[in-house]
Amino acid sequence: MAAFVAGAMTTACSDWDDHYDPTDATSGSATSTLWRNIQTNTELSEFAELVRKTGYDKILDASQTYTVWAPLNGTFDFNTLSAQGNEKLLKEFVQNHIARSNYPASGSINERVTMLNKKVLGFVGNGSYTMDGVDLTKTNLPSTNGVLHLLNHKLDFRANIYESLDASEFPIDSVSDYYHSFDLKVLNESKSIIGPVVNGEITYLDSVMDESNSRFLVYRALINEEDSNYTMVVPTNEAWVKARQVIAPFYKYVDNFVYTNNPVASSNNTEDVNIDAAYLTDSITHLALMQSLFFNNNLYDNGKLKNLATGQRLQCDSLVSTTMTKLYPEDAANYFEGAIRVNKSNGAIFVTDSLRLHPWSFWNKPITIEAETPSVYGGVSGGTAVTREVQPTEQNPAVKGTVSNGNYLEVSSSGNSSSQQINLFLPGVLSTTYHFYAVFVPAHITNVYAPDSLPATFQAQLFYNRENGTKSVAPKNLGTFVTDPTKVDTIDMGEFEFPIAYAHTGTGTTEYAPYIRISSRARSDKSFDSVLRLDCLRLVPKELDDYMREHPDYVYPKDWGSIRININY
């Protein structure tokens, strides 16, 4: 056993000598701490002064193991760094040159080293070595608590996207102040190094703080993570103000309004709703603005952003934001027009003086109301409602068009009545103008043997709140219409501007909303179908509706809750 232990010890010493070649150890002592060796090395007096200023002399003089890559005197701007505040100096310089554990320079190395400031740097070489591309002039200077390497230049600090949200380089105070207002720092006691007790209070030689921000999850963009790869469009203060002015009018709320919760009830069908209108407008305006800024470069066709240079026209099939909004080629390219690219440690930012977005791309999207969806169903009077399914293989090939979501709502009259009514809530409505479309299904949608269907005729009315929150004195009559029974028919019902916004006024899964009433106008002479077969309603923002009429080749994605369909203009 004694011989075995002696042999093991001999092998260990041999390995140690391989890592710490005495010929390289021209400075320092294996019996001293990292701090003592840095302090006594005349080539490192400037680095030592900055370490001492931040209090990290005590950390490097303790027992925990570290590796230090120390830049030589004269290889960095000592005076500029010395004038920095301690927090900035610590994170961007001192912690940028120190990592936990031993990283000796020996043999072939290709390491990704996480520094104390969480930056990940490349330590590579075979005989001669570099750290993040900077040459090591001396290696493997041993210490009792780690190893010291000397550099011929400081290691540059590369901020990530989150760290770049300040006004040091660009005038972006507005977005910076908003985002950082959600910052939270909490001491991680288990990872911090405890120091002496002073006046009965525990002190820490090395305080490790857990930093978080609720916006990381709200916008689904971990822009603080070094192993991520994101693109963020960063508006200047000018762009921020302009965007707020554009977005805010879509979110006009009132503190009190009357909500109809049961359109078919004769009494006790309303409730008073109270909200903080000013707070909601401000909060949702910021949310709408911020959710358009983030893209994960590792997903979808977003990878094209990795190499997009300033002034280059983006060529892509589409972009998908982290909040799952899709931008097709024209919109995606326009969004980055005129923006300045700045590379970051986990991606890039594009600083822009204008958020070149159509409102319908993010916050004012088309709204599709599937008639058979229980959450929007406001009841039927004068008839009974049944959901019908239409599989693509079952559809009558003589009927043109497709049934949205593969289902529609069929409302048949009760007894001899032909005045049945469908009431549907319109959730997510903003204070803006929508163009209304109703999609109807013919009777022979699945029956290839049935004779030609009869047209249906109906009246459409909107029930909403006025600008002061009270119920409209009379509903808005959109008109009376007749369907084309030869196809799945999309009927243009005109436009209407809602005085107030309803989106986000509810709690949980409940959202207050205005509603539309579709009433059959079939006559007793049997010239019209007495059954209403409503597939869906589409509320298209007027701006988008006008734009699509003027630009027939404009692509807007049907499969993302929108309206790239054959509209009967």
Explain what this protein looks like in three dimensions.
β3 and β4 form a beta hairpin. It is built from twelve helices and 30 strands. It is of the alpha+beta class. The termini are far apart. A seven-stranded mixed beta sheet has the order 2-1-7-6-5-4-3. α2 (about 35-40) packs across α3 (about 45-55).
What is the total tally of β strands? 30
Order of strands, main sheet, comes to: 2-1-7-6-5-4-3
Beta-sheet strand percentage? 25-35%
Query: Could you say which overall geometry the principal axes of the C-alpha atoms support?
Result: elongated
Radius of gyration (CA) equals 34 Å
Which percent range fits the helix content? 10-25%
**How would a textbook summarize the main sheet?**
7 strands, mixed
- State the end-to-end distance: 94 Å
The computed structural class is alpha+beta
Which regions are unreliable across 5 or more consecutive residues at pLDDT < 50? 1-26, 559-569
Number of helices: 12
Mean pLDDT, rounded to whole units?
Answer: 88
Helix/strand layout:
Elements: H1 2-19, H2 34-40, H3 45-53, H4 56-60, E1 66-71, H5 78-82, H6 86-94, E2 98-100, E3 108-114, E4 120-126, E5 129-131, E6 134-143, E7 146-151, H7 173-180, E8 183-187, E9 193-198, E10 201-206, E11 209-213, H8 215-218, E12 230-235, H9 237-247, E13 256-260, E14 270-274, H10 277-290, E15 294-296, E16 319-320, E17 326-327, H11 329-335, E18 340-344, E19 347-352, E20 367-370, E21 377-381, E22 383-389, E23 407-413, E24 421-425, E25 433-440, E26 457-463, E27 476-482, E28 489-497, E29 515-520, E30 532-541, H12 542-550
Parallel strand pairs: 1-7, 12-19
Antiparallel strand pairs: 1-2, 3-4, 4-5, 5-6, 6-7, 8-11, 9-10, 12-15, 13-14, 16-17, 18-19, 20-30, 21-24, 22-23, 23-30, 24-29, 25-28, 25-30, 26-27, 26-29
